[in-house]
Write a structure and sequence with these properties.
FAD/NAD(P)-binding domain; Rossmann fold; about 35% helix; binds flavin-adenine dinucleotide; globular; 6-stranded parallel sheet; 6-stranded mixed sheet; 19 strands
């Protein structure tokens, strides 16, 4: 039997597990996750109201229905079990740990209370146990969100939505209550570059037109009349649609709804001001675009904000002993190969870019590589696999969570949901484990 360990049960881990379990009938595939809950950012990243996107879980669930796939939740590789122990006990290890650590803004004032990375803010409203106690400061009228991608849009939308617009989402009750109470009037979404370079998709951008209480505003002078002749044809369609949507927003009237979302381009944050240790403003420098690059102009302006959320990208966190490229904050690899018998895929392999289907394509390639390397190796497996790991977990008093255990947690979340909510997530590991004993 070939014993395969996968670290991380996000889409990348599930896709690799599925392919290997399907193609290698004599293999046992064990998918470890540090949380008792599977599916990575599908649960803890994707916007709580985007239940259609979260339905991808139906597909991922099928992986764990396979007889030769085991979920081993609540086991942190690097803490509960070392990377070396995994390599010692498995013929193949695939690392799919994602990338959720926030990059920092790196400007004066960025450590003040009231400043959050998008990773932690999103984790908070999505019920990730790491950020259950974040309680972000949302007591001012102005919020700045730095970033021009879909994550920045997700955050703006969640904050701008009314309780009824969130009622059929799986946002945690705690986060929904905090957002309901927040006296926010102005949300500023700030991009360093222009609308041609913004990485929003049009579906995400257009959703703002339908919000009950929030009007979206854009300075018409910031929207180019047309794409330049040499614009990349691969993104021309999306960007043209975005320009059209932005033009429609630029005609909106600022006082038509109680909350205003200001989409601002060509500005870089330079300093966060404080009053008594709290954020009291954000100073920005205007940029001009030169051949797709943002150049500073030496002109500054200030926004009256009390909370700043930076959505400027994520990085992976190294696991002790695992080859790690610190300059790119990814697991070191060459086309998915990390070292002998170790592979990687997903956000920790290529950096935090790409939607869920992109991980599937990459996982398929890496799984094929694993199968071809196994075929080329004529030595029989001598690695003991999970039995040895189970003994170590026992000795270390780590309560691992099986897929059947997860289903108990899952059902309890669904059962305790009120109204139209699909589930009320447990946000603490202890609460989840208490259901199992
Ligand atoms: C805010 C946000 C919104 C998004 N919205 C969408 C969307 O609407 N549609 C879309 O298609 N894509 C969306 N994406 C992108 C999508 O979530 C990613 O493409 C995808 O989740 C990446 O998958 P992954 O498996 O590489 O990483 P992840 O999904 O991050 O999974 C990694 C897993 O590894 C586990 N792990 C980490 N370290 C360890 C360790 N040491 N030991 C054990 N386990 C570990 C984690 O707990 C996690 O379960 C969004 C991303 C973000 C951040």
């Amino acid at each position: 039997m070939t014993n395969i360990a996968i670290i991380g049960s996000g889409p990348s881990g599930c896709y690799i597990a599925d392919m290997l379990a399907k193609k290698l009938k004599d293999a046992q595939v064990d998918v470890f996750d540090r949380l008792p809950t599977p599916f990575g950012l599908v649960r803890a990243g994707v916007a709580p109201a985007h239940q259609g996107t979260k339905n991808i879980v139906r597909q991922l669930e099928r992986t764990f229905a396979r007889e030769n796939v085991r979920f081993v939740g609540n086991v942190h590789i690097g803490t509960d079990i070392t990377y070396q122990e995994l390599k010692d006990n498995y013929d193949v290890v695939a690392v799919t740990i994602g990338a959720v650590k926030d990059r920092v803004l790196g400007i004066p004032g960025d450590q003040l209370e009231g400043i959050y990375g998008s990773g932690e803010f999103v984790a908070w409203y999505n019920g990730h146990p790491d950020k259950a106690d974040l309680q972000p400061k949302l007591d001012g009228s102005g919020i700045a969100i730095i970033g021009n991608g879909n994550v920045a849009l997700d955050i703006a939308r969640v904050i701008a939505k009314t309780p009824s617009e969130l009622s059929s989402s799986d946002i945690t009750a705690n986060a929904a209550a905090a957002i309901k109470e927040a006296p926010v009037q102005d949300i500023y979404l700030i991009g360093r570059r222009g609308p041609l370079e913004a990485s929003f998709t049009n579906m995400e951008l257009s959703e703002f037109a339908e919000l009950e209480s929030c009007v979206t505003l854009v300075d018409p002078d910031q929207i180019p009349a047309a794409l330049p002749d040499d614009f990349d044809p691969r993104s021309a369609n999306t960007v043209n649609q975005n320009l059209e949507t932005l033009r429609a927003y630029s005609a909106n009237s600022a006082d038509s709804k109680p909350i205003r979302l200001h989409i601002m381009f060509c500005a870089s944050p330079v300093e966060i001001s404080e009053t008594d240790g709290h954020v009291s403003g954000l100073k920005l420098e205007k940029n001009r675009m030169v051949e797709g690059r943002a150049e500073s102009t030496g002109e500054y302006f200030e926004l009256d904000v009390q909370t700043v959320i930076s959505a400027i990208g994520y990085q992976s966190e190294p696991i002790e002993g695992m080859p790690f490229d610190h300059s790119r904050s990814i697991v070191s690899n060459e086309d998915g190969r990390v070292e002998q018998n170790v592979y990687t895929s997903g956000w920790c392999k290529r950096g935090p870019q790409g939607v869920i289907p992109a991980n599937r394509a990459e996982a398929m390639t890496v799984a094929k590589q694993i199968i071809s390397d196994l075929d080329a190796n004529s030595e029989a497996s001598t690695k003991p696999g999970f039995d040895q790991i189970a003994a170590l977990l026992d000795k270390r008093h780590v309560r691992s969570v099986s897929y059947a255990d997860w289903q108990i947690i899952n059902n309890a979340e669904i059962e305790r949901a009120e109204g139209d909510k699909p589930r009320e997530k447990f946000t603490r590991v202890d609460e989840m484990l208490a259901l199992l004993d």
